[in-house]
Amino acid sequence: MAKDTPAGNSQATSVLLSSTFAFTICFAVWMMFAVLGIPIKKQLDLSETQFGLLAAMPVLTGSLVRVPLGIWTDRYGGRIVLFILMLSTVIPIWLMSYATAYWQFLVLALFVGLAGGSFSVGTPYVARWFPKSRQGFAMGVFGAGNSGSALTKFVAPALIASAGGAWVIVPKVYAVAMLVTAVLFWFLSASNPAHLVKQTGSFGEQLKMLRDPRVWRYCQYYSVVFGGYVGLALWMTKYYIGEYGFDLKLAALLAACFSLPGGVLRAIGGWVSDKYGAYKTTWWVMWVCWIAFFLLSYPQTQFTILTVDGPRTFHIGLNATLFTVLLFVVGIAMAIGKASVFKFISDEFPTNIGAVSGVVGLAGGLGGFILPIMFGALLDLTGIRSSAFMLLYGTVCVSLVWMHFSFRPESVAEGQRALASRVA
After folding, report:
1. Staple partner for 188: which of 18, 168, 219, 329, CB 3.0–4.6 Å?
2. What does each C-alpha distance from 359 to 120, 306, 349, 424 come to in angstroms?
3. Across-strand partners of 301?
4. How far is CA 345 from CA 123, 341, 393, in A?
5. Between the CA atoms of 152, 88, 130 and 68, what dihedral angle is there, to the nearest 10 degrees?
6. Is the distance from CB of 231 to CB of 303 less than 8 angstroms?
7. Do residues 320 and 194 touch, judged by C-beta distance below 8 A?
8. Does residue 157 have a pLDDT over 70?
């Protein structure tokens, strides 16, 4: 941990701020197809499922590399790993502007997706600069870099409009931004050899943590709060265009009403988790999402009934305002939930944060990869846009049931210990 001195606090703050900025840019790049994919879909005449696959492709590699990146961060330090990671994405981002065929976009998207692995680097890197009592808040501040998703929704449409509708300007600007960010991060961050974890075992031995049921439990929670966040962040711009007929700029702006709180408020989630505990915070997050997804799942419906005065037709459905308000609430809940899940990790795996956060981040990222594809497939199959929220409603139900039965024995044991101490 950093020394409890003004100099140590200053260095920890510098690491936190520079890492958060770097993660914000990485996340903006990772989510670029939320906007960029829409003109590409039109240009290539893609189906909904093909669009979902294109939007999700960066998420795949960004998820798969999280485990090794987390382990390398424990071994070599977050500063060098994150710096190299950012540099490795600059050329693929730039080449995206020259792609013309669907397969070319898919291949380049895989390399661009490496930027998404920055989370499993920055989380343990930042956490080790702070005492345990403040790690939830520190990881929450860093995780606020998720707001890069909203940044893309503000910046990318403006860039396309300034270029007369030419989307190729976006990857060029993003490539330059990534290069500049990598250089700034290197000069503003720091390294501390005391934070390195001495590992002598093999890669396979380090993954023995997968035998711990707690890891699987947190993987499922994170696949909902982070995977759901990524999936919706990639899908909502297109949803607004299709459901409400908005243009790209307005649709992206409204979609940012979900992405922005879903990223920025993660710091508050860290504070709440530090104060009230990871379990209680996550439990309430799941209930809020459960109610919101139930309401969002209801499709636009018209039905006719026979009355004494003849047939009458009624319409039930969310207008754009109510839809955006509910989405805003979901964004806040997911922001808090993302922080509370990682509070579980820092509390229960203090010496192995990098590797465990890599595994849990992998699960969340894979959720973010699978969901847009399933959204597209469900839309192609049913023709109902709100089927995306029906799917998310089901995943939250699984989380609530799992939490209830997983923590109930622990709660009962704790109550029995408290009762025994009073009797004694």
Report:
1. 18
2. 9, 56, 12, 43
3. 316
4. 11, 7, 25
5. 110
6. no
7. no
8. yes
CA 26/CA 122 separation, integer angstroms: 11
Entry field: residues in the chain: 424
Using CA atoms, how far apart are residues 15 and 18, in angstroms rounded to an integer? 5
Hey, what amino acid is at 356?
V
Q: 201: buried, middle or exposed (CB in 10 Å: 19+, 13-18, 0-12)?
A: exposed
Instruction: Take residue 420 and report the two structure tokens written for it.
Output: 């025994």
Provide the token pair at 137: 């808040």
- Residue 65 DSSP code: T
- From 393, 110, 349, 356, select the one nearest 232 (Cα to Cα): 393
Judged by DSSP in three states, 73 sits in helix
> In the 8-state DSSP scheme, what is residue 313?
E
Q: What mean pLDDT, rounded, does the chain reach?
A: 85
| pTM for this predicted structure | 0.78
CB 345 within 8 A of CB 119: no
Reference 219, options 351, 391, 357, 116; nearest CA is 357
Band the pLDDT of 5: cuts 50, 70, 90: very low
**Alpha-carbon span 417 to 298, nearest angstrom:** 45
What's the Rg (C-alpha) of the chain? Answer: 22
Q: Give the per-residue pLDDT at 68.
A: 84
Task: Encode burial over 299-337: b for 16+ CB neighbours within 10 A, e otherwise.
Answer: beeeeeeeeeeeeeeeeeebeeeebbebbbbbbbbbbbb
Mean pLDDT of 351-362: 73
Confidence at 417, pLDDT banded by 50, 70, 90: very low
Q: How confident is the model at residue 412 (pLDDT cuts 50, 70, 90)?
A: very low
Which residue is associated with the tokens 């240009």? 43
Across 53-62, 171-180, 235-244, 295-304, the highest mean pLDDT is recorded for: 171-180
